[in-house]
């Protein structure tokens, strides 16, 4: 069942298209990663999904409701990218206030505030003024504010940008715990390794358009590399392969080249054997999320100009 | 909405807005009290019967004049606080990113905006009431005069910051903090100048262009009109001369000159002011509901 659904979401500011006909769907209990270069339209998309920005066209449903619907908002938590918390409040007071806004009464709100403070590693810091928190502590507090209403759906826009490696690991663990508890997480992050570690599905957005989406394994089954140790490669066969695979490199007995997909490896090996080569070792290259991301973004840049 | 109102009131309190305004107001009251002491020169109003003697009557007129001047200056401070408190309450929070976490809560934008209005209004009403009563108290202490029509006058004085708050709340839903501040202060200046022109026109018995100018500026922003009505409420309740040692024709309004209320706004203007606040708030909700955050 889709908990987050976007249908042709489009946002235009004057002549600038921030998002163009974005369609995506996130199932219950998934961690969904949204990737894209700066200015690709990620934050605009997230803001449309949480009801801060009105789409120019298209529609979205979050937890079964339109993003502006109060009933849906009871089930949504949001950590914005460039946010500031009310510095005149103490950490515990801020979270209690957010818990009350989320519908909890006084005592329950206070209890819940203490729980989430502990969850994000700020137990014992609740009596300090938010203005005196470090940037990393404020980010943790922002995450706590997103979680204080015990939401079914959590949108996190760059949740670890101000955190040290330990803090990042802690956030990853929180995300996995949320998933374990059946919550749905929509993660917008620049940190590809982080997305790779926790996300079930990802979408890559560039110039306001989704250029790829799917399960990580599906995306990684796209363009691939292979390294082959062989003997008996003739000049004629090498020339033929260079025409077909411009990336081909031959160093001693080691041949490396890029393929359109892993399924082409078998055909390549068959052609080499048919051409009289002896194959000693075939090593398929791992295509990281970063490789895919860079490839798709560069492809988009070339297409535009 | 009430949760938001309480939050906004606490914010004004914790950020020491009230403390800073209070300190400035105290300085103003001290200066005013010193001025009052030396200007009145010890001439006291017969509190139980101000018309008991010509000396008491003229002391009363002097005291009223000083009170009205105090209120005139106080209305500037109250208006300034209203504008400064609300000028960035939406736009500023969008600019610095603190509205995002609130605007996604299960709270309609109407409740968010009206909650902020109510919180600020509570702070301003409290401030204006204390300021007004402090002025009236000083006048009583130094001259023995109990301000006539004190309660309706207090109600009118409280209305001045509420009008400016409504204007500024509408502005902050659409304009930047700076733009909104410039607009609100400009509108207030226009209202004050228009009101002054209207009174001068009435004093000179020029009942056409200058008076209409004042009426138009009062329709644009009825802050000065409320002040004029307040002055009329206080001054018109003063007892007339007894026709013996105090001439009947003594007109306290003429003593006040352009600070008085020769041309007094009607009850319709008061009704207009209340409708004006409601319409501006409705417009603010409408605009805020449709804007991207």
TrEMBL record, chain A:
Gene3D superfamilies: P-loop containing nucleotide triphosphate hydrolases
Domain ABC transporter, chain residue ranges per copy: 4-232
UniProt keyword list: ATP-binding, Hydrolase, Nucleotide-binding, Transport
Keyword Hydrolase among record annotations: yes
Class of enzymatic activity (EC top level): hydrolase
Keyword Protease annotated: no
EC number: 3.6.3.-
InterPro entries: AAA+_ATPase, ABC_transporter-like_ATP-bd, ABC_transporter-like_CS, P-loop_NTPase
GO molecular function terms noted in the UniProt entry: ATP binding; ATP hydrolysis activity
Family affiliation: Belongs to the ABC transporter superfamily.
Protein's recorded name: Putative ABC transporter ATP-binding protein YxlF
Species: Neomoorella thermoacetica
Lineage: Bacteria, Bacillati, Bacillota, Clostridia, Neomoorellales
Primary gene name: yxlF
TrEMBL record, chain B:
Lineage of source species: Bacteria, Bacillati, Bacillota, Clostridia, Neomoorellales
Protein name according to UniProt: ABC-2 family transporter protein
Transmembrane segments: 64-92, 113-141, 153-171, 178-197, 268-288
Entry GO CC: plasma membrane
A GO molecular-function descriptor: ABC-type transporter activity
Pfam families, per the entry: ABC2_membrane_2
Alphabetic keyword roster: Membrane, Transmembrane, Transmembrane helix
């Amino acid at each position: 069942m889709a908990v987050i659904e976007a249908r042709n979401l489009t946002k235009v500011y004057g002549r600038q298209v921030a998002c163009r006909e974005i369609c995506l769907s996130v199932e219950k209990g998934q961690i969904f990663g949204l990737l894209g270069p700066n200015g690709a339209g990620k934050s605009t998309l997230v803001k449309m999904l949480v009801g801060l920005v009105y789409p120019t066209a298209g529609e979205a449903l979050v937890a079964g409701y339109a993003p502006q619907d109060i009933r849906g908002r009871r089930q949504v938590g949001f950590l914005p990218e460039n946010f500031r918390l009310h510095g005149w409040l103490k950490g515990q007071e801020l979270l209690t206030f957010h818990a009350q806004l989320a519908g909890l009464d006084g005592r329950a709100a206070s209890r819940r505030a203490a729980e989430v403070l502990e969850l994000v590693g700020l137990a014992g810091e609740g009596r300090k003024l938010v203005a005196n928190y470090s940037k990393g502590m404020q980010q943790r507090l922002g995450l706590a504010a997103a979680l204080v209403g015990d939401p079914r759906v959590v949108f996190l826009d760059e949740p670890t940008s101000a955190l040290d490696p330990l803090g990042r690991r802690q956030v990853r663990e929180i995300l996995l715990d949320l998933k374990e508890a059946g919550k749905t997480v929509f993660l917008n992050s620049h940190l590809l390794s982080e997305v790779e570690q926790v996300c079930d599905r990802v979408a890559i957005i560039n110039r306001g358009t989704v250029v790829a989406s799917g399960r990580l394994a599906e995306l990684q089954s796209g363009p691939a590399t292979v390294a082959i140790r062989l003997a008996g490669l003739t000049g004629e066969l090498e020339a033929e392969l260079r025409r077909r695979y411009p990336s081909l490199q031959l160093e001693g007995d080691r041949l490396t080249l890029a393929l359109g997909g892993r399924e082409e490896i078998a055909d390549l090996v068959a052609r080499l054997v048919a051409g009289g080569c002896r194959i000693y070792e075939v090593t398929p290259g791992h295509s990281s999320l970063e490789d895919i991301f860079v490839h798709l973004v560069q492809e988009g840049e070339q297409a535009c100009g | 909405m009430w949760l938001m109102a309480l939050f906004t009131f606490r914010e004004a309190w914790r950020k020491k807005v009230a403390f800073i305004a209070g300190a400035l107001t105290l300085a103003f009251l001290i200066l005013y009290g010193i001025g009052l002491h030396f200007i009145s020169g010890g001439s006291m109003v017969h509190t139980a019967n101000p018309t008991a003697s010509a000396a008491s009557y003229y002391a009363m007129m002097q005291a009223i004049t000083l009170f009205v001047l105090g209120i005139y200056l106080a209305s500037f401070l109250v208006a300034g606080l209203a504008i400064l408190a609300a000028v960035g309450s939406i736009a500023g929070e969008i600019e610095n990113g603190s509205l995002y976490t609130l605007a996604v809560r299960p709270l309609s934008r109407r409740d968010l905006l009206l909650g902020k209005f109510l919180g600020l209004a509570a702070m301003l009403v409290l401030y204006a009431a204390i300021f007004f009563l402090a002025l009236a108290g000083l006048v009583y202490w130094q001259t023995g005069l109990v301000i006539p029509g004190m309660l309706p006058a207090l109600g009118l004085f409280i209305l001045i910051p509420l009008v400016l708050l409504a204007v500024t709340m509408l502005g902050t839903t659409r304009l930047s903090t700076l733009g909104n501040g410039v607009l609100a202060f400009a509108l207030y200046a226009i209202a004050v100048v228009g009101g002054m022109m209207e009174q001068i026109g009435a004093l000179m018995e020029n009942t056409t262009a200058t008076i209409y100018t004042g009426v138009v500026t009062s329709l644009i922003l009825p802050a000065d009109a409320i002040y004029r009505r307040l002055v009329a409420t206080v001054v018109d309740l003063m007892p007339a001369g007894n026709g013996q040692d105090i001439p009947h024709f003594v007109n306290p309004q003429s003593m006040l000159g352009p600070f008085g209320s020769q041309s007094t706004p009607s009850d319709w203007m008061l009704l207009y002011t209340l409708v004006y606040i409601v319409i501006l708030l409705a417009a603010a909700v409408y605009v805020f509901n449709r804007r991207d955050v």
